[in-house]
């Protein structure tokens, strides 16, 4: 399936599934599951929530992951600190990358920002090199805006 068709389908499912009345925990849990089940070639999809100066593990799908990431550390901590998305084509080439699953080879992290305040990140890992591009980033930015 072409990527834009796939993303349109996931977007429609997410629009029907997510409902801010049910709070962030339930919505991020369902969004992690939806992305993990539908995105090809990924091995981890989930959320970290900001708590003071650290990110704490939230709902996810995939192998168990590190529970706490200080701001500025790893891909997630950098994306959170700088409030910008990170696309890492080769995690082995990213100084300070935190390896939760040794099979991960590339990664995308999208900051979660509401009213200019960061509240967490969405993190997706792939076992393939160079799995994520600007189209993935654009789609994921759009989908997290539903939260
Ligand atoms: N690789 C991330 C850590 C989280 S796991 O990939 C689930 C990082 O460097 O921040």
Structure description:
It is a single chain. This protein is α+β, with helices and mostly antiparallel strands and 147 residues long. The chain has one domain: GAF domain (Beta-Lactamase), CATH 3.30.450. Helix content is 35%, strand content 29%. It has 4 helices and 6 strands, in the order H-H-E-E-E-H-E-E-E-H. It has helices spanning 3-17, 23-38, 74-82, 134-144, and strands at 44-51, 54-62, 68-70, 86-88, 106-114, 117-126. The chain has a 6-stranded antiparallel beta sheet with strand order 3-2-1-6-5-4, sandwiched between helices. A hairpin with a 2-residue loop joins strand 5 and strand 6 (117-126). The model has no long low-confidence stretch (mean pLDDT 95). The chain binds methionine sulfoxide. The site of methionine sulfoxide has 15 residues, from helix 3 and strand 6.
Detail the topology: elements first, then pairings.
Elements: H1 3-17, H2 23-38, E1 44-51, E2 54-62, E3 68-70, H3 74-82, E4 86-88, E5 106-114, E6 117-126, H4 134-144
This protein binds methionine sulfoxide.
The site of methionine sulfoxide has 15 residues, from helix 3 and strand 6.
**Shape estimate:** globular
Q: List the ions, cofactors and other small molecules found in this model.
A: methionine sulfoxide
* Largest sheet properties: 6 strands, antiparallel
Count of runs of 4 or more consecutive helical residues:
4
Rg from Cα: 14 Å
Instruction: Describe the strand arrangement of the main beta sheet, using strand numbers.
Output: 3-2-1-6-5-4
CATH architecture: 2-Layer Sandwich
Approximate helicity band: 25-40%
* End-to-end distance: 26 Å
**Uncertain segments:** none
Number of distinct beta strands:
6
Q: Give the averaged pLDDT, no decimals.
A: 95
Strand content: 25-35%
Q: CATH top level?
A: Alpha Beta
CATH-defined topology: Beta-Lactamase
Number of structural units classed as domains: 1
Q: Structural class of the secondary elements?
A: alpha+beta
